[in-house]
Structure formats: C-alpha cells, structure tokens
C-alpha cells in the first residue's frame, strides 16, 4: 500500500488556550496529506477541478491520542483505506518525531460534477486516476 509522509511544523496560530493544536486543524492537515498523496500518484488536484469536477468530503472521523503542541514537528501519513470506483476513503496518522501517534482519522470522498454535484464514477470518467488508486492499494511501498 502506498503511504505518503507530509511534514508539518506546528504554528502558534494552530493552537488553543491550552497550548495544544486546536482539533479542527487536524482536518486541514489531513487535506495537506491527501493533496500530497494525490500528487504522489501523478495528479494535481487543480487539474482535476479544471475538468469540472470536485471531491467533497462526505464523512470524516478523527481519533485523538496524544496532544500536539506549538513548535513541534509532526508528520501526516496518508494512504488509501478503501476505494470502490466511486467512493474513496483516505486513512491518516499524525505522528510525533518520537514515533508516537498523536491522531488517527479517515475521510471519505466522492467525485462530483462541480455544477450539479452529481456523482461520477472514477472508474468510467477518469480511468487513469482509477488505475492509479488500484495500484496505490496494491503497492509494496
């Protein structure tokens, strides 16, 4: 399975009054990891949008394990958890430099027409993307 690793340097504005990363920021970090993952497959998200499609989040889960604080360096690991030709589920781990897991999560997406938000089959509409997803799930990386 292909896994990408995205470095994150925690910025002060990402923390709350307790000095830890505010919970909603992890979804932003997931998006950064997902973008890196897609680019690692050879695609640019903006190029897909230029074709009149977008990929909204239809479900998201986040599990908090240990806090992340201002000034720390962490990494977002991203992979394909599931893919069926229509729905894509990405998995994530936010990992401290020590290797301890801070956060885990998943986001599920579909591809839709930008104008109507009608779902599209990736398998039929974007066969290269479909093949790349299948290869990523089977990769030894």
Overall description:
- The protein is α+β, with helices and mostly antiparallel strands and 141 residues long.
- The protein has a single domain (3-138), classed as Thiol Ester Dehydrase, Chain A (Roll).
- 26% of the residues lie in helices and 38% in strands.
- It is built from four helices and seven strands.
- The chain has helices spanning 25-40, 45-49, 122-125, 127-138, and strands at 3-9, 53-54, 57-64, 73-83, 87-96, 101-113, 119-120.
- Strands 1, 2, 3, 4, 5, 6 and 7 form a seven-stranded antiparallel sheet that branches.
- The longest helix has 16 residues, at 25-40.
- The chain is globular and about 45 Å long.
- The mean pLDDT is 94.
Report how far the terminal alpha carbons are from each other: 6 Å
Query: Order of helices and strands, N to C?
Result: EHHEEEEEEHH
Shape: globular
CATH architecture: Roll
Radius of gyration: 16 Å
Mean pLDDT: 94
For the record, the CATH class is: Alpha Beta
The major beta sheet can be summarized as:
7 strands, antiparallel
Overall tally of domains: 1
CATH superfamily annotation = Hotdog Thioesterase
Estimate percent helicity. 25-40%
């Amino acid at each position: 399975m292909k896994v990408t690793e995205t470095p994150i340097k925690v910025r002060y504005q990402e923390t709350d009054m307790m000095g830890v990363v505010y919970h909603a920021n992890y979804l932003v970090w997931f998006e950064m990891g997902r973008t890196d993952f897609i680019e690692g497959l050879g695609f640019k998200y903006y190029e897909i949008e230029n074709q009149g499609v977008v990929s909204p989040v239809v479900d998201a889960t986040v599990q908090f394990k240990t806090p992340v604080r201002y000034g720390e360096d962490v990494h977002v690991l991203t992979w394909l958890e599931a893919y069926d030709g229509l729905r894509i589920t990405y998995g994530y781990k936010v990992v401290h430099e020590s290797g301890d897991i801070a956060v885990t999560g998943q986001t599920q997406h579909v591809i839709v027409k930008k104008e109507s938000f009608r779902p599209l089959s990736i398998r039929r509409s974007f066969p290269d993307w479909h093949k790349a997803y299948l290869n990523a799930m089977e990769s030894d990386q």
